[in-house]
Task: structure prediction
Amino acid sequence: MKRILLIVLFLISAKIVGQSEVVSTNYSFFKLIITNNKKEILLVKWGDSWEIQGRKYKGNYSLYKFIERMGDGVGAKLKKIKLRGLFTFHYKGRVKPTLMHYYQASYKSGDLKIPKSCSDIRWFSLVDAMKVIEYSDMKAILKHLKGNDKVWGGALEITPKSENNERMFKKIDDFYELN
Result:
């Protein structure tokens, strides 16, 4: 009888833990496009990849404070913070999507610093940024945001990078205007 009770308790706890992991895969992630007066964008080198800086939303902050803290993380004081897009990223192999918030801000002042998890930070023209950013989904979003102040939405299916393949994406819902 004790064995059966232990097995039942084990199965119930395994189900609860499994469910909590499924829920934890659904989160918000912020990308911050910082531009300077030369219309260059700030990129960070994370691992071997140049990209727009990003951070998982956590903590007890307002959205505005969270974005300011992202700027502080690279040594930049910001002005003109704007929401530019909300996209759902449906990663293959995950049950729930990630909500990607794309914000844009102008560089006001500060001494740039490399974030702890990165190895470099640098300003790039948009043309050069498109050459060094390896994520095709990020490049497609940047290209779409260029040249207008609208807020965009969309849904992308992301196939993660593997040993043999680059990270790929396809649009589930084409980009659409939110405002």
User: Anything to note?
Assistant: The longest helix spans residues 2-24. Residues 5-24 have pLDDT under 50 and may be disordered.
